[in-house]
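debug: dumping io for the single-chain case to check the tokenizer round-trip. Nothing else runs in this session.
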Amino acid sequence: MSGVDIIKQFVEGRISPRAFEQCLHTDAALQALLEGERNLPAYVAEPDLYLYLISQDYESLACIYNVQTLLSERLDSQGIAHAVDDSHERRFTLALNAQPKWLSLPPAYIARFMADHDALDPKALQTALKAAITRDFRYLKAPPKWLQEPEWPLADDVPMVFVGQLDIRGLGHDTGQAYLFFDAQQQRFHTVSQRC
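debug: decoded output
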């Protein structure tokens, strides 16, 4: 199978993101094809398409959707006919619509949730995801007010309980916050800090 065929299979949803990732690491023809692709969008920091693709998280719906979109555009630019499987985009949009602003769902959490609830229709899936977020991402008084992207920690794939946050701007030149979480399984505290 050629590198183009592997790319088409991924874009069309005929192989899974994990299978595509495996091909990236084992298929020499695919690697050579992607290393030759250097005309990349401005958001890609890597020097070639291969290095960009192997740096992605193939559990993350956002990454899968972005990679699929980029590869579809590459196929279009080469005049290669293909159909795009939009299931990753739909799941990504659903997850974005279900999560509150103070949370960025961890890829492992979304993957596990989607696998456990795969039979639900989109509306029921979004309702179930909102209920799971309320149940799993607990806080004592109020959710965190992040300075940057949310970084809710997990312990063994279980979200920790948010205890509170502390202004730590006096410890440096920048504005800073320390966020305290509790791992109920291990009975330990965990701190996340952010500065801006």
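debug: round-trip ok. Helices lie at 3-11, 17-26, 28-35, 49-54, 61-77, 87-98, 107-116, 122-136.
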